[in-house]
Write a sequence for this structure.
């Protein structure tokens, strides 16, 4: 088999951080090579070195056996290297097609753009991906799931022989992931090489041929995906065994209701949503992308307006018109889009962690209690194993997963009664995931109520005492958690269109 | 019968223009006409003034009083007015065109020359002086500066004008600027400020630098300047007759509108005044607060 | 499909003028209409052909400036130098025509070229030297202000020896075609510039990158586009538009006034923002800017024609600007 | 730990003045030093106690204004009204002291209060009515300009009947303590305001939210913070600082000059940006702003003391601003 990429002894340092020490990677023609590692292990950095965005401090890169040092995306493209970045880098004010063909617009004379042709090509691209999207829609108006699909389409449109995918499925749900894998297999068949980064272990078996594991910026080893048990790979990543005990669904019938929602309605996005949530309960929200879970969560949290519906907190009807009201009522919401709604990325870890809690750290004269803030932050950093050189490092300089951990941390620090977690483990490594699951279980053990929105069914099933399934903005059913509920049961409800609506409502 | 005269001036916020306006209103009162008085924020806004003139024409006034920032630029509109049979009276400074029937103005060059003479007297015909002017390009700015400089050059070879700086008539800017001039020229004998704002700026600057033996000649009046002259901080100042300018302009405009004949050159005159003459009725009449 | 598409984004021609925010623009337009109605009721003299033309005439220069700076603002930048740049270009035309007695077209081209050159400088400062646009153009503002005074010898330059020159903005081709409609060429030029720029914005690569850079410059770089070069191109193009404004004002005043210009940048930028372009970049339309500029000059003219006392004119202008934009906002919701 | 920490962020007191960009600020400082050296070589008269004091005094008003607008800019906003707001506050003090003959402290408080009120209005327009800061404060700029003229009857208001008033900026407490060091109170006040504001920015909730709102307003809102109320608070605070500037300038000129103030906003904002605060919001320091303001006034004063012809002064100022910032940038790399 001929190697198309060889990276040997790569070093890369940033102020205060040695991101890569003697890292290495080898990619063959027609292989899907998974790159695994904890948050902050250096995966994205290594890929940015390969695609000419960062300049390596030391080491060698061989492309098709020839030593190369691409500088800038341009040269990388010329070498046939394409990359899907972990953090979305799209132009929100441009349309899907314009984003995909930026810099390669089909032109007429005098620098005029042939938009018709461009939209046609984009449409074809989407069709090939089984993606139903208007090429002319403004990217800023899409959910991150759709935006992620556009990033993928863009990368594919280059038809690069070497394609890097940095956590492409973090924002995707199962249906879309399946579509993506079909595409990946087609590329394989064409002899392209794919470097695939993901924290979703199950994906390894499904597409990866070989797996390279990194830890703390160092090369740990490369193994055959099929032969190697996931547990071994995890052990290589984390340096220890991660074992999760099966879920025990407690009997909560005695517990008081923490949150009750009656007939929430807004346009097509939220249609007559009702459910209740008991103290100590984890209520999972399952559904396909666009099912309206986030919309419901945001509505309860007062982030978006409502047309109709009633929200009762601990039995009291509560008027929530803004997140301020919600937090006062003891509700916390962890948003699914950390960059847009979760973090002030130019501020440091401490500032972000205490953002919802400032009054707790403020004297009557409005003076901040810095030492207390630093202590609280350090605790959270240790608890969530956030990898950062200092609690005063700017958040934007942290790795994606570590940023996500901060969003989780800021709500754990805020002692709410009701937590709404929307995709809390997006981009978080297996080790840390287990930690967060434990933290959520601790919360419920302490009588907190939790709503868990996740597009990863296993995750929903792993944690939920009950599972609420949504489709097209409606609640199509609420299933019991634990063994007796299977993925199939959930999917049938998740895909239950308008027609068979009535029996959904009265299942609760 | 509700005759209405539109005055488009060079400014309106500054005391000088307020005084002109009050004169104009006086005349309007007497002659039973209505007036409007408008001017741009500063004397560089030539085109803003043209727009004001255009808006004034839209209201079909019986006559127009116009203090041109730049006569050339205004000519097309003046022609329109002429064709519409609206008589035009120029004020403050002339309009080089035969359209205005009369001009009520101060001879700024002569006035500044008088300031130069007085300056020379005070410093004994030799030494160093500076000029703090209010504008580098506007007509009044140029005429007062050059009137002063030319007079010095012509008649006082032993007097050196070390620098001319422009403070846009802004008291604060003129103050800082004066202080810088004094720092650069410790041996300065006198400063001429070419309008109220500049003159007050000079006074502030000099007093903040704690210089006593410096001759300051100002221009126009206003409370602060009058106080400075009374207290001796300022040797004296040139005053025009702003009230007179406004009054004569409206008077001439109305007469012209009523088809009466008017003389074409109305020199509203200027005077030099100091602590002794400031209360002399002839002077006091043309000073404003 | 394309058809349905075009209207949604900067494609399709008229749509080009309107762009994504068709809806919104229509609303800014509503504020304009309301102002016109209000003033017509306020003063019988307002709604006259001659006054309407005066308003358009007053809009022409600021309008062209605003169109130029719209491009810069869409890229997420700002240009404080447009006012003095306009003057600088006027002075350069003056030098070519009056001092050197060169033929009219050359003088006009010189003015526009000067603008393009200034734009190129600002662009280079911003794109290559990475100086924040605010600083770079503040510097240019002062440099050009000084140079205009130096070159002109702090004296206005008159164009009396080039009779054709004042026709550029004062003459009226339209009247020759449609007698009784004496719309001055200055206004004609304003609309031509508007249409041309809207076309560039909506139909060409330059326009596409203008929006792209304002939307997410990093993403543009990551896509392998030579962002710097395009940014310089945009600043140069905007500069040449300022050059046109310079020629217009010189011809309107039949003279290059070296001290004039400061403060125009604010008026122009205000027009742009009132027209619905966001200073954050990425969004904006030429039509919006045109309407914004018209709102401003209708406001000033209307209040004058109603002979409101000047100090109250200022108060009213401020209040109405806030209200107009607020009305817009709330209507959009 | 905290200790090691403080210097890195808005903590630790002196560090508070310096904040995250210790490194960078030091560099802007370098440009300032180089200017001082340059001018001392250029003119023997430059480096005199009296001139240094003149420079500081020239900085006092603009400096205070710049400090106020720094807050707004850190939130990601802009305030164009500070110049005329300053004048408005001066006029209000004049009304209280001269027209109504009330005692000095009340007059001063009235001026500052007026500023706070104006800030509150702008803040409400921006936070509650969601009007873009540029428009809201442009409107305020005009409204306040007009009102100053109306209230004062377009006449300066003199403070001759309140002898103590001019001492506020002209007197020198420091000289009473350290004879031979006649630093005027105006300068003293500038530094007190700077230290106070730096403290608020680095040590209090208000300051924390100032940065947070500029960094990601949506994230702040979704953290359950009442973002609107805090934003209004920030604008109000900034307004009261403008009020101080108003009192300062009035006492300096011993009169409230209603026509003055327009254009000061640009100078102040320039100082802020030269000081390294980004117009995008989220970053900025008071120390930087102070240095930026000093760079500006050293520049103007120095060129004047070197008796450079005024038109060339303008050119030089523009060029040096660009160079200074560029030097900064490249050193930072
Ligand atoms: N621009 C930067 N400046 C400073 N430190 C950085 C920068 N980029 C990355 N780092 C640091 O380098 C380390 C590796 O980051 P990287 O993004 O490669 O991790 P990762 O393996 O992709 O993690 P994740 O799975 O969370 O995406 C992290 O500790 C991160 O904080
Ligand atoms: N920020 C947004 N702007 C525009 N439309 C949105 C936005 N967020 C969601 N939508 C739309 O609202 C509907 C519900 O989306 P939502 O994200 O709530 O679904 P979801 O069940 O949370 O799926 P996801 O897994 O993407 O969170 C979808 O049609 C989606 O396209
Ligand atoms: Mg990563
Ligand atoms: Mg969601």
């Amino acid at each position: 088999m001929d190697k198309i990429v060889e990276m040997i002894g790569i070093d890369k340092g940033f102020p205060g951080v040695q991101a890569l020490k003697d890292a290495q990677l080898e990619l063959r023609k027609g292989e899907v090579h998974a790159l695994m590692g904890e948050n902050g292990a250096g995966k994205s950095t290594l890929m940015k070195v390969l695609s000419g965005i960062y300049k390596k401090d030391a080491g060698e890169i061989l492309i098709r056996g020839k030593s190369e040092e691409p500088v800038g995306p341009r040269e990388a493209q010329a070498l046939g290297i394409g990359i899907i970045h972990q953090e979305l880098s799209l132009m929100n004010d441009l349309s899907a097609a314009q984003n995909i063909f930026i810099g390669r617009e089909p032109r007429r004379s005098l620098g005029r753009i042939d938009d018709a042709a461009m939209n046609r090509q984009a449409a074809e691209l989407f069709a090939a991906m089984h993606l139903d999207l208007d090429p002319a829609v403004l990217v800023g108006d899409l959910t991150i799931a759709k935006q992620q699909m556009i990033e993928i389409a863009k990368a594919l449109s280059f038809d690069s022989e070497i394609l890097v995918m940095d956590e492409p499925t973090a924002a995707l749900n199962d249906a879309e992931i399946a579509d993506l894998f079909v595409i990946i297999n087609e590329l394989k068949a064409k002899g392209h090489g794919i470097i695939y980064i993901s924290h979703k272990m199950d994906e390894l078996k499904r597409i990866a041929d070989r797996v390279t594991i990194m830890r703390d910026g160092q090369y740990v080893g490369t193994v055959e995906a099929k032969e190697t048990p996931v547990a071994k790979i995890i052990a290589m990543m984390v340096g220890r065994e991660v074992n999760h005990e099966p879920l025990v669904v407690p009997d909560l019938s005695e517990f008081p209701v923490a949150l009750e929602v009656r007939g929430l309605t807004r346009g097509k996005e939220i249609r007559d949503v009702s459910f209740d949530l008991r103290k100590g309960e984890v209520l999972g929200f399952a559904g396909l992308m666009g099912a309206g879970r986030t919309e419901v969560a945001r509505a309860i949290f007062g982030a978006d307006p409502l047309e109709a519906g009633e929200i009762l907190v601990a039995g009291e009807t509560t008027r929530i018109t803004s997140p301020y009201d919600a937090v006062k009522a003891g509700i916390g919401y962890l948003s699914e889009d950390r960059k847009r709604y979760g973090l002030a990325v130019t501020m440091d870890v401490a500032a972000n962690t205490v953002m919802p809690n400032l009054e707790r750290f403020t004297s009557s004269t409005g003076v901040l209690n810095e030492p207390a803030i630093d202590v609280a932050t350090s605790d959270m950093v240790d608890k969530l194993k956030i990898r950062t050189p200092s609690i005063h490092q700017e958040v934007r300089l942290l790795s994606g997963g570590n940023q996500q951990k901060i969003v989780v941390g800021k709500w754990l620090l805020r002692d709410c009664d009701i937590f709404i977690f929307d995709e809390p483990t997006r981009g978080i490594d297996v080790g840390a995931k287990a930690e967060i699951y434990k933290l959520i279980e601790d919360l419920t053990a302490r009588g907190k109520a939790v709503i868990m929105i996740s597009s990863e069914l296993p995750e929903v099933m792993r944690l939920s005492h009950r599972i609420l399934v949504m489709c097209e903005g409606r609640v199509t059913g609420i299933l019991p958690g634990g063994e007796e509920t299977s993925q199939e049961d959930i999917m049938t409800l998740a895909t239950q269109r308008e027609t068979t609506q009535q029996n959904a409502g009265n299942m609760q | 019968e509700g005759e209405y005269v539109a005055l488009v001036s060079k400014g309106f916020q500054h005391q000088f223009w307020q005084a002109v306006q009050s004169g104009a209103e006086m005349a309007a009162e007497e002659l039973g006409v209505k007036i409007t008085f408008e001017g741009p924020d500063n004397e560089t806004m030539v085109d803003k003034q043209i727009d004001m003139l255009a808006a004034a024409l839209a209201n079909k006034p019986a006559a127009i009083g116009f203090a041109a920032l730049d006569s050339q630029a205004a000519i097309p509109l003046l022609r329109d007015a002429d064709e519409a049979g609206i008589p035009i009276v120029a004020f403050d400074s002339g309009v080089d065109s035969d359209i205005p029937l009369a001009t009520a103005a101060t001879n700024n060059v002569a006035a500044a020359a008088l300031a130069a003479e007085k300056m020379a007297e005070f410093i004994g015909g030799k030494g160093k002086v500076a000029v703090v002017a209010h504008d580098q390009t506007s007509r009044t700015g140029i005429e007062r500066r050059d009137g002063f400089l030319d007079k010095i050059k012509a008649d006082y070879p032993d007097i050196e004008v070390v620098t001319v700086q422009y403070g846009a008539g802004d008291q604060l800017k003129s103050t800082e600027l004066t202080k810088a001039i004094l720092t650069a020229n410790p041996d300065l004998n006198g400063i001429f400020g070419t309008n109220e704002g500049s003159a007050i700026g000079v006074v502030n600057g000099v007093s903040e630098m704690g210089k006593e033996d410096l001759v300051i000649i100002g221009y126009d009046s206003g409370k602060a300047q009058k106080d400075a002259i009374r207290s001796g901080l300022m040797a004296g100042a040139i005053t025009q007759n702003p009230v007179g300018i406004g009054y004569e302009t409206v008077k001439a405009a109305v007469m012209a509108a009523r088809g009466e004949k008017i003389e074409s050159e109305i020199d509203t005159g200027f005077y030099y005044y100091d602590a002794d003459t400031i209360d002399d009725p002839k002077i006091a009449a043309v000073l404003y607060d | 499909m394309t058809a349905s598409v075009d209207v949604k984004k900067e494609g399709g021609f008229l749509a080009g003028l309107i762009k994504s925010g068709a809806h919104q623009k229509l609303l800014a337009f509503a504020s304009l209409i309301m102002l016109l109605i209000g003033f017509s009721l306020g003063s019988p003299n307002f709604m006259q052909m001659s006054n309407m033309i005066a308003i358009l005439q007053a809009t022409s220069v600021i309008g062209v400036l605003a169109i130029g700076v719209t491009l810069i603002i869409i890229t997420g930048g700002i240009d404080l130098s447009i006012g003095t740049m306009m003057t600088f270009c006027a002075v350069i035309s003056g030098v070519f025509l009056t001092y050197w007695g060169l033929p009219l077209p050359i003088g006009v081209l010189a003015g526009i070229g000067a603008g393009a050159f200034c734009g190129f400088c600002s662009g280079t400062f911003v794109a290559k030297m990475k100086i924040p646009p605010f600083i770079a153009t503040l510097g240019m503002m002062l440099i050009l202000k000084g140079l205009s005074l130096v070159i002109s010898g702090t004296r206005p330059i008159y164009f009396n020896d080039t009779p054709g020159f004042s026709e550029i903005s004062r003459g009226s081709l339209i009247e020759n075609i449609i007698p009784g409609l004496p719309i001055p060429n200055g206004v004609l030029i304003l609309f031509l510039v508007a249409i041309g720029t809207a076309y560039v914005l909506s139909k060409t690569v330059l326009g596409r990158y203008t929006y792209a850079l304002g939307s997410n410059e990093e993403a543009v770089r990551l896509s392998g586009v030579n962002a710097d070069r395009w940014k310089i191109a945009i600043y140069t193009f905007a500069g040449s538009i300022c050059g046109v404004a310079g020629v217009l004002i010189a011809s309107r005043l039949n003279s290059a006034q070296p001290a004039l210009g400061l403060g125009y940048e604010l008026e122009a930028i205000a027009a742009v923002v009132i027209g619905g372009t966001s200073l954050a970049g990425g969004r904006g339309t030429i039509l919006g800017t045109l309407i914004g500029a018209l709102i401003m000059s209708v406001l000033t003219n209307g209040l004058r024609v109603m002979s409101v006392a000047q100090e109250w004119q200022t108060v009213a202008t401020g209040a109405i600007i806030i209200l107009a934009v607020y009305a817009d906002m709330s209507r959009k919701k």
